[in-house]
Amino acid sequence: MANKAKFTDKFIRDLAPQSTRVRVWDTENPYLVLDVLPTGKKVFRAYYRRAGKPAYSTIDAYGAITLKEARDAVLKIRSQAREGICPVEERRKAKEKAEEKRKIEDNHRELVLRTFLEEVYIPDAKRRGLKTTDKTEQMVKTHFADFLDHRIDQITPKMIEKWQSDTLAKGLKPTSINRALNPLSPDFS
Fold it and tell me: Considering only CA atoms, which of 6, 82, 28, 13 is closest in space to residue 51?
């Protein structure tokens, strides 16, 4: 098989796996490479030079992204490489950052509202210099005292709706109810 060809969707779909990896270069964009693995998986990679040596950055599998998206990704990767940014290192950092964010979100779900408020929200809000931190803390503790010992992921919309109707029945105006609910919105954290 020739190791260079003009990539089209039909050409890529028709590539058959071999007993070893087959690497094919796109003639339209010579920095776009397609690896056909023995398993049949087809993976786009970008070719670039790092410190004068050949390097490859995995883009994604064919099917997960389109040929056009792969060609666009090559341009971005090569641009980063020209600026001295290692695309592989950038991808690793982005992956680590996403994983860290996911862990933080998981930890927040397991926290009870009181703990989240006192150990996460208030210290962070004070660090960022938010002026309404004390007012927000007082509002949550006053209006949602019944929820303070619930895990955040267990406070359901149904519970909030019941609180709204009960509070409305006690005479609190809808605008005041909405103001009290603001700290419980997803933007609160």
Answer: 82
